[in-house]
Structure formats: structure tokens, C-alpha cells
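stage 2 :: seqdesign
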């Protein structure tokens, strides 16, 4: 019997110590039977379960922080330039939401690269497919795709950080969970501006296949390795420090971030 099960059964026995010993034994037996029926007893004692939660080298903390910071470079650029190029063709609500997203992505980047986290972007130069800025619809569709990649990546990061079992690990897990929640809002608002149901998911998608029709990633599964976030973005034409697979334009983060809009109603934090 595992230490987990021993602790659980001892707790049941202790919390019911006023009952006769025979009754307490029946409670323990009943709990064990219920856990077995649900498959939980096997999970708690399985070596495979222990192995399944080990973090592979591909998902080390340094790589996750680097990929996340670089993704926020991309997101800051796409949202900022998107408003600049297409804002006059958007309705007022969509324009404000995309501009606010640019501000939030910039703040995410600043947090990830701060001394509190210590992330370092791989590059500050992103090649963005020219087609993305051809119309508001193209931009919004790209945001739906990109934000889902970020949701997947931050869910993965939350899992990895939580597994550290340390105070700093739990703090970083909270950071990434908070960022993931914001990315989910960005995705929902982009879908809504496309005339689709924005509030379309009961749970944020991790490894499941993309079920939104008409996207470059429709039908494709999520990922378990953080570098697959980069591969997914490259597959839709983005280039990181080099030209992508489709015609595009290079944008530098420092130049773009200097003109990222600020909405006074955005609730944010100061990054030291």
C-alpha cells in the first residue's frame, strides 16, 4: 500500500475514532472499494502514474520562459501593428480590445523578462505574414490561432512549475495561470468580433484537437512539448529572427513596443 493510501485510511480511522473499531474498519474498506471502482486506488499506487508526471528535458524551466517571452514579443507586435494598420476598419469595441491586448501582451513580456522570473526572449525580431494585416478578419483569425497556442503553452508551463513542489514553483505556476486566463479572454473576444461564439469552451483547451472551423490549425491537436508552440506558429507562417514560410515583414519588438497603446481602464501591475 502506498504512503498516500496509508495516510488517507489513517485519517478516516482517526476522524471516526468515536465509532466502534468494527465500524471504522468498514468505513476504510468502503473507501478502498470506492477508490478501486473509480480507478483512483490504482492511480495512487501506480509507478506509471509517478513516471507520467516527470518533466522531460524539453520542458525545462529555462526553455519555457524563453519560449513564453518570445511568444509575447510576437503578440505585442501583432496586436500593436494590427491596430495601427486596420484600426480604422474595425468597430470601436474591437479596436479597443485589440489595443488593450497589445498593452497586456507587452506587460506579460515585461514580467517574464523581469528579475522576478528571469526569462530571456530568443529574438526580438518577428516576421509576420503580410496576409495577417490584409483585413480585420485575417487579423482576428490569426489572434484566435495565436491565443490558443499561448493558452496551451501556459497550461503546460503551469503544470511544469506546479510539479516543482517549491514556493517559487507555485508562484510561477500562479503567474502562468493568470496569463493563460488573459489569453483565453483575448481568444474569446477575437472570436466574438468575427461573429462567432466567443464563450465556446467550458474548459481551456490543452491537448485536444482544435474544433473551431476555418482556421489553419483546425483539426490539429495541442502539444505537450513547449518547443511545439514555436513549431505551430511557424507552421502558419511566422518567422523568429528569420523569414517565415510565407511572404512577410520583419518587425522589431523595441520599435513596436515603444508605440504600444495604453488604455487607462486596463487593470495591470507595475513590473520592477
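stage 2 :: out
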Amino acid at each position: 500500500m502506498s504512503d498516500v493510501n496509508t495516510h488517507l485510511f489513517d485519517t478516516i480511522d482517526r476522524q471516526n475514532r468515536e465509532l466502534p473499531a468494527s465500524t471504522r474498519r468498514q468505513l476504510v474498506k468502503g473507501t478502498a472499494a470506492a477508490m478501486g471502482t473509480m480507478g483512483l486506488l490504482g492511480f495512487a499506487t501506480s509507478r506509471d502514474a509517478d513516471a507520467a508526471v516527470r518533466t522531460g528535458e524539453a520542458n525545462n524551466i529555462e526553455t519555457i520562459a524563453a519560449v513564453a517571452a518570445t511568444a509575447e514579443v510576437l503578440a505585442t507586435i501583432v496586436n500593436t501593428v494590427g491596430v495601427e494598420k486596420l484600426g480604422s476598419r474595425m468597430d470601436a469595441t474591437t479596436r479597443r480590445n485589440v489595443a488593450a491586448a497589445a498593452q497586456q501582451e507587452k506587460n506579460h513580456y515585461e514580467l517574464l523578462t523581469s528579475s522576478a522570473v528571469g526569462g530571456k526572449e530568443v529574438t526580438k525580431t518577428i516576421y509576420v505574414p503580410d496576409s495577417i494585416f490584409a483585413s480585420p478578419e485575417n487579423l482576428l483569425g490569426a489572434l484566435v490561432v495565436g491565443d490558443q497556442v499561448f493558452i496551451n503553452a501556459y497550461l503546460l508551463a503551469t503544470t511544469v512549475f506546479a510539479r516543482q513542489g517549491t514556493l517559487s514553483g507555485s508562484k510561477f505556476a500562479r503567474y502562468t495561470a493568470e496569463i493563460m486566463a488573459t489569453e483565453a479572454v483575448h481568444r474569446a473576444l477575437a472570436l466574438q468580433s468575427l461573429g462567432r461564439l466567443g464563450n465556446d469552451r467550458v474548459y481551456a483547451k490543452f491537448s485536444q484537437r482544435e474544433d473551431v472551423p476555418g482556421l489553419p490549425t483546425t483539426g490539429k491537436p495541442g502539444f505537450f512539448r513547449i518547443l511545439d508552440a514555436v513549431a505551430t506558429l511557424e507552421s502558419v507562417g511566422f518567422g523568429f529572427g528569420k523569414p517565415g514560410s510565407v511572404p512577410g515583414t520583419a518587425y522589431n519588438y523595441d520599435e513596436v513596443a515603444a508605440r504600444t497603446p495604453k488604455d487607462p481602464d486596463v487593470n495591470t501591475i507595475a513590473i520592477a
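stage 3 :: structure notes
- The chain has ten helices and three strands.
- Residues 57-257 form a domain with the Ferritin fold (CATH 1.20.1260).
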